[in-house]
Amino acid sequence: MWEDLDRIKRSLFDEVKNVLSEDEFNALFAVINFSTKEKWLDVSALVAHMVSEFGKTDKDAKDLVEALVDKQLLKEGVSVPI
Prior knowledge:
Number of domains: 1
Strand content: under 5%
Structural class: mainly alpha
Helix content: 55-70%
Shape: globular
Low-confidence stretches: none
């Protein structure tokens, strides 16, 4: 099963590699994984995940998130608890 998932992930990356770097793709894939468990995603949680799972620095992880926002693949916002 994991081999199939890895193959599908690689195939997806092959389709978008002209638009996204591998790091951007992995970050976006992490967002998709988070979205299956959470209704919304805190940017700090995504950054922490990229630091721990991908070995990125905090700055590099934040830059990846910003790049995805710039490409309009993510939307960054503010939430106020009610």
